[in-house]
Amino acid sequence: MATYILGLSAYYHDSAAxxxxxxxxxxAAQEERFTRxxxxxxFPSNAVDYCLREAGIGPEKLxxxxxxxxxxxxxxRLLETYLDYAPSGIRSFLQAMPLWLREKLWxxxxxxxxxxxxxxxxxxxxxxxxxxxxxYPSPFDSAAILTIDGVGEWATSSWGxxxxxxxxxxxxxxFPHSLGLLYSAFTYYTGFKVNSGEYKVMGLAPYxxxxxxxxxxxxxxxxxxxxxxRLNMRYFNYCQGLTMTNRAFDRLxxxxxxxxxxxxxxxxxDLARSVQEVVEEAMLRMARFxxxxxxxxxxxxxxxxxxxxxxxxxxxxxxxFENLWIQPAxxxxxxxxxxxxxxxxxxxxxxxxxxxxxxxRGSYLGPSYSNDEIAAALDGVGARYRRLSRTxxxxxxxxxxxxxxxxxxxxxxxxFGPRALGARSILGDPRSPKMQSVMNLxxxxxxxxxxxxxxxxxxxxxxxxxxxxDSPYMLLVAPVQEAVRIPMTAEQEELFGIAKLNVPRSKIxxxxxxxxxxxxxxVRPEVHGAYYELIAEFxxxxxxxxVVNTSFNVRGEPxxxxxxxxxxxxxxxxxxxLICGDFLLEKEAQxxxxxxxxxxxxxxxx
Length: 606
Fold this sequence. Notes:
CATH architecture of the largest domain: Alpha-Beta Complex
Largest sheet: 9 strands, mixed
CATH superfamily of the largest domain: Carbamoyltransferase, C-terminal domain
Structural class: alpha/beta
Helix content: 25-40%
Number of strands: 21
CATH topology of the largest domain: DHBP synthase
Strand content: 15-25%
Strand order of the largest sheet: 13-21-20-14-15-19-16-18-17
Number of helices: 22
């Protein structure tokens, strides 16, 4: 009889559920995709319902429910931190208490109420869940493990190793000293949202100069050769206040934090570049130390900082490890999956099954919709569409991309994690010099400086990028090959900041960042199916085996989940074509969308 284990993350950010059957990953999804509330932190009821439906079981069939951290230990950290800083932290303490007293401290009762007495409840430690999510789905029999984030219960990073079905964590860094919180402090200071805007800082960094690196190393962080670190808490406010930084931080960097939505200046660009370089250096030192301690040739990573794909790329290129695998849902959502896998292997002592490649199935672990379901949904919103054969669908979509039309692509199971990987993607022609600007301003409604990622056929990746390994989850940044680059003129070299944006850097300018880098996704036929076929047909038409791939959403909204979500996003943007399953919709054939004021305000949220 099968054993079903449900992993849960909730109440902090990016709530999610993941279901494992006899060690096999059946389903996983973030709650935000169902509620349409970005980074939804509430109990993942909808994600749980989806996972059970996907497995074809009811809650009574669950053997275990496993929560991804230990709330009492986290509450202990909150209390100890308040006492250390009292009375200055009273406002922060009082703001946190209602949610703790109403929900977080009653996690055991809430889960028992949800699933009944037949389901046994377990708790993992936060970084144990991250480590399990990194190692168990990886393709390695043994590997070093590195987890880095803001904070779990007390740990902010940990290292160890995995061998067979066992994970061992050897050491950790403890709160308040945190590489993730250092990065979040600069996210806050440069005017972006903490826990969601860190990737904007990473994207902004190449426009700046590293002029504050030494100041950060001298004043903010004591970074040792082994990657261990201590922060100078005189400059930070997150232990006792409602902000990440304080006035001493303002004085150090010459002014108050940038106000959200205000004009970006060279200062923000230089700050972003500087903290990015410090974090990359810390990641490299940690990786070298872990390699020295474990002697492993493979490294697995998870935790929010493992989403820093620029740092990951440097760890792979410059670090001592031969192979690197990163959990695609590296943040808190992936903790739900790690918790379930940890229970199966560690608590129940079950061996790992050998699988070709990793066991994440391309991270296609979310809902899919049949053609009948899609047709019913499209009919319900009055959409006009054509149903095509698979061959026709691929040919006509590739032709639309070659004609520089922007395509919304919803096909197969939704991705688990923050990246669109060819199931819920917006696609474009990377050869077009105007594509980045068009997609940022007319499709995504987001900042013009934000780069787009390339999806490339795996067999052609080294022709375009300085990378010759798999990167299926878009978590590695690599330089664009010299042969593909367009050299800058002396006049262009003198440009600063955002002025660099409109200078084409390569033969695929829409996916080449200002520093000649790209966040690469490699695509294989056995993993990516129709998405591979589409890029292959685009390659046949154009000679280019690369497409622009960005997430199918607009600013302030989660990635689309359902056909209704996809159609709504399609109609409210200037996308040209929508693919839903085997159906093709063209914008000019639809009734005009109504754009009311409430919708326009919706996309000013972040």
